[in-house]
Amino acid sequence: MRILHISSARAFGGGERHLVDLANALVEQGHDVYVALVPDSPLHQKLAPLPAQNLLTLRMRGAVDVASAIKLARFARKHQIEIVHAHRARDYPLAALAAKLASYPRLILTRHVLFPLGRWHRFTLSNVHRVIAVSNAVAASLRAQQIFPAHKICVIHNGINVQSFDLAVSGFDRDAYRRSLHLAARFLVGCLGEISQVKGHEDFVRAAANLAEQRPDTEFIIAGSDVSPTAVNRARLEHLIAQLNLRERVHLIGHLEDVAPLLSSLDVFVSASHTEAFGLSIVEAMASGVAVVANATDGAREVIDDGETGRLVPIGDAGAMAAAINALLEDEEERKRLGTLARAAARKQWSLNRMVTATESIYQKALDVKRLS
Fold first, then answer.
1. How far apart, in whole angstroms, are the C-alpha atoms of residue 242 and residue 146?
2. N or C: more exposed end of the chain, with fewer CB within 10 A?
3. pLDDT at residue 371 in the model
4. Would the CATH topology of 2-159+352-368 be identical to that of 162-349?
5. Where are the chain's structural domains?
6. Superfamily assignment of 2-159+352-368 in CATH?
7. Three-class SS of residue 219?
8. CB of 291 within 8 A of CB of 271?
9. How far from chain centre, in Å, is Cα 269?
10. pLDDT band at 159 (very low <50, low <70, confident <90, very high)
11. What pLDDT, on a 0 to 100 scale, did the predictor assign at position 168?
12. Could you give the 3-state DSSP secondary structure of residue 364?
């Protein structure tokens, strides 16, 4: 198949990880994959398996960027694109117009978040063949908005390369990795993700404050960057850490290209998000065999079997989060049990191969319908 992915992303998050993993895996499966990106996209360097001529750089200034839609359509005709696949709401109308102008391609959208689409999407996306929701929660949100016919909405859960997170089998030295981060405490509790208010890092810091006196043997780590123009979220978080006298206990280490070593170094992973469509970092922690404590968001409840593959706590309750973390730090056997079951669940349910195969099936069905019409 000849597939064109479209993304105007200027920061790298879960949706962008999804696109990169999917595109690279489709290349390995023998498909001709093309990707349209903005000039300053962080995805360029992560799509190494694609030939340089398969990457199209466009400004993609917004949903009504007709000039970019025309260029996309020309590119699609030139390369005989069969599937146009868009991953961001702002790109949906642009992709829809390009697919119409190019005449042949079938339009696929992936919805990665729970936030509602705009009303104008209803009038610009009539030629959509399928909308892929990355979780049942996202699918329910889409159905409630009634922008797309229910039969066009399908669920393909996110997937990861689970083997790349199983560092224990390769003799990974977690103590050496901790030393490289200048961490000396017996236990390490961490979270990762973009530093923003919705990710709940302040709750994580308050949970650390609740544990500080009773757990002098524990340090806390936050991996992630603040992509806001003035980095106001990180500044707010640093102020809270100083205010709670936690500068020696809570460490902000910024963005990591490879999160697997950090995850494999943790005793407990925490997802403090207030809303989560799926919870990709949770699945990565599970694949790493780490005990997980997560806020009971829609996405977390879809991924974690409470008490079996992790612990769920009420959203925004730093006290409950602290109690759950402490209980696991106190009980090594329970940490190991949760980690072992979590790793097995990740391998069974959240593999990249499963996600790619399911997406290929959607593509093929779209083409079969086109050929019959």
1. 47
2. C
3. 55
4. yes
5. 2-159+352-368, 162-349
6. Glycogen Phosphorylase B; (3.40.50.2000)
7. strand
8. no
9. 16
10. very high
11. 67
12. helix
* Tens digit of each residue's pLDDT (9 = 90 or more) over 43-61: 998 998 999 999 999 988 8
Tell me the two tokens of residue 62: 């917004």
Phi and psi based region of residue 305 (left: phi greater than 0; alpha: psi -120 to 50; beta: remaining): beta
Q: Which residues pair with 313 in a beta bridge?
A: 295
Quote the Cα angle for 330-281-110, to 5°: 155
What single-letter DSSP state applies at residue 342? Answer: H
* Number of alpha helices (DSSP H) and beta strands (DSSP E) in the chain: 14, 13
Q: Does the predicted model carry a pTM greater than 0.85?
A: yes
DSSP 8-class letter at 216? T
Kindly report the number of other CB atoms within 10 A of residue 273's CB atom: 25
DSSP 217: T
Amino acid symbol at 288: S
What is the pLDDT of the chain when averaged over all its residues? 93
Please state which architecture CATH assigns to domain 162-349. 3-Layer(aba) Sandwich (3.40)
Burial class (CB in 10 A: 0-12, 13-18, 19+), 372: exposed
The amino acid occupying position 335 is R
DSSP string covering 292-318: EEEE--HHHHHH--BTTTBEEE-TT-H
